[in-house]
């Protein structure tokens, strides 16, 4: 029996043992009050073990209640002694409370005005209309993903679950997320850990993410296996295929799942050996140039039976993406979608240097990708997703306004199934059973309850988005543009995003008359045959 298990149940066990042992001596006047207290605590512990809504109480009977007791006075403690509601570490209390409320179908309304300083530089808002539009049905907020080379397009929600692998998340967490996606008719990204039995259990729509380890479709030496890929990709539950180029948490780094965390289930799901570290290389072996990437996309599309195929990346060197764009023009092969991740994203552990100082933030990356595709007359053929600290309707609206077609959220949906931001995801000791492979810890996460919360969070967030759109005089998220998003520049100046950023005109990169030296220079540096830049242009 592990020390962790003993520490979690020790206090409960002491209360029960003391209560039972003291009963024969209850006539002692000094003893019965203590016995009464331990008896009550024992009953509380039993209730904690039997209840389903709160994972912390199931994993820490009696002691787990301290969290909720402290939480009830937490606003007051923080108000007078500690932090503000807006301190994002990495998510603020206000953000987490919003998700918790919407997941539980509780009102998220706040009285007495905003806590945000609206005169502080960086404050953002959506402009509203003097003539609001009728409230639209949130179920109509969908986008058709699938370009001219796709034969099985997918109608995706504008809000979906971002990539989180089985292995990083528990089986029960995957079950809850996928069941919630099924209830709400939105997509659940598998993460690079492949498609587990828990992804299939409830039949929710899947976006199969294919990382550099090719988990679920790999040969014994870790290379891509077309036959194994075709078997999985042609499953009707798989609606889109996403090549993972890089992620926001640690772009260009790769990853390792230590062998002590590799269970037999993970090994079977990923197609790896037990007793060995599970390695995700920092680069793909199936392609090495932009042209080869396009050919790989075409291969995956054919093997999947014509399903939408795209890639996800966190922008690094701008000329590399423009090289991919040149490869699109040269080969005539187009991805059906591109998901732009921001450096603010990431559910897993990463070196601090990568988390803090590698990768382009979401908005700048998204804007660059959007502009490049517009400048090549490709934007209407390729859909764009955005991922990176998206938890609210405003977060969704802000990325849609600058070029995205839909938004993905990872940590937002983790909050919906009970995550409390303990930041212990990499320790296998998640207190709520979300990010752990410990069978007892994840048992505390009750799937039907959390699945309903996933559904509620998605539905209520889209309802809030519908209300925002109506206030802005719009009927559908696709009508949002940069002119609707406003930022405060100083105490005396605000600007529309359409004024703040360069937006290329359709076909502008093809004409050679580019509005903006940066885009022109990156285009000259880009190569379709290599991720390396043209040296003469870079000089």
TrEMBL record:
Q: Does the keyword Membrane apply?
A: yes
User: Which keywords has UniProt assigned to this entry?
Assistant: Membrane, Transmembrane, Transmembrane helix
Q: Where is the Glutamate synthase domain?
A: 157-474
Q: Which GO terms describe its molecular function?
A: glutamate synthase activity
InterPro entries in alphabetical order: Aldolase_TIM, GltB, Glu_synthdom, YerD
List residues traversing the bilayer. Answer: 9-26
GO BP annotations, alphabetical order: glutamate biosynthetic process
Q: What Pfam family is a match for this entry?
A: Glu_synthase
Family designation = Belongs to the glutamate synthase family.
Q: What is this protein called?
A: FMN-binding glutamate synthase family protein
**Protein's organism:** Pseudomonas fluorescens
């Amino acid at each position: 029996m592990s020390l962790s298990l003993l520490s979690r149940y020790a206090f409960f066990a002491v209360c029960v043992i003391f209560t039972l042992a003291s009963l024969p001596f209850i006539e002692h006047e000094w003893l019965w009050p203590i016995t009464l207290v331990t008896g009550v605590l024992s009953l509380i512990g039993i209730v904690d073990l039997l209840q389903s809504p709160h994972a912390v109480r199931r994993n820490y009977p009696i002691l787990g209640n301290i969290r909720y007791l402290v939480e009830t006075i937490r606003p007051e403690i923080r108000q007078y002694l500690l932090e503000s509601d807006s301190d994002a570490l990495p998510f603020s209390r206000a953000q987490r409370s919003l998700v918790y409320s919407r997941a539980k179908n509780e009102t998220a309304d706040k009285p007495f005005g905003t806590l945000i300083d609206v005169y502080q530089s960086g404050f953002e808002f959506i402009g509203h209309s003097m003539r609001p539009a009728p409230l639209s049905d949130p179920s109509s907020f969908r986008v058709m993903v699938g370009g001219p080379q796709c034969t099985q397009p997918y109608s995706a929600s504008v809000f979906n679950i971002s990539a989180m692998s089985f292995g990083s998340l528990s089986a029960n967490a995957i079950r809850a997320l996928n069941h919630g996606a099924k209830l709400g008719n939105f997509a659940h990204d598998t993460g690079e850990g492949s498609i587990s039995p828990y992804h299939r259990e409830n039949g929710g729509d899947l976006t199969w993410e294919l990382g550099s380890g090719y988990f679920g479709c790999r040969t014994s030496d870790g290379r891509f296996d077309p036959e194994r890929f075709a078997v999985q990709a042609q499953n009707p539950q798989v609606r889109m295929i996403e090549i993972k180029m890089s992620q926001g948490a640690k772009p260009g780094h790769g990853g390792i799942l230590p062998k002590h965390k590799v269970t037999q289930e993970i090994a079977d799901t990923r197609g790896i050996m037990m007793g060995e570290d599970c390695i995700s290389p920092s680069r793909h072996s199936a392609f090495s140039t932009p042209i080869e990437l396009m050919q790989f996309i075409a291969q995956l599309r054919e093997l999947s039976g014509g399903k939408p195929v795209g890639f996800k990346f966190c922008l690094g060197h701008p000329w590399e993406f423009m090289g991919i764009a040149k490869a699109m023009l040269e080969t005539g092969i187009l991805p059906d979608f591109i998901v732009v991740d921001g450096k603010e994203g990431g559910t897993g552990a990463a070196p601090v240097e990568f988390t803090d100082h590698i990768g382009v933030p979401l908005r700048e990356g998204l804007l660059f990708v959007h502009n490049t595709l517009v400048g090549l007359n490709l934007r209407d053929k390729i859909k764009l997703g955005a991922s990176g600290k998206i938890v609210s309707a405003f977060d969704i609206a802000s990325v849609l306004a600058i070029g995205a077609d839909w938004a993905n959220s990872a940590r937002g949906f983790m909050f919906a199934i009970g995550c409390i931001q303990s930041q212990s995801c990499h320790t296998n000791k998640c207190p709520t059973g979300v990010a752990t492979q410990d069978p007892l810890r994840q048992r505390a996460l009750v799937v039907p309850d959390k699945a309903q919360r996933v559904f509620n969070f998605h539905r209520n967030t889209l309802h809030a988005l519908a209300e925002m759109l109506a206030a802005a005089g719009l009927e559908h998220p696709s009508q949002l543009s940069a002119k609707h998003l406003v930022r405060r520049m100083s105490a005396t100046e605000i600007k529309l995003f359409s004024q703040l950023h360069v937006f290329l005109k359709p076909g502008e990169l093809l004409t050679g008359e580019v509005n903006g030296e940066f885009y022109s220079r990156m285009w000259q540096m880009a190569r379709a045959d290599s991720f390396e830049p043209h040296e003469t242009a870079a000089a």
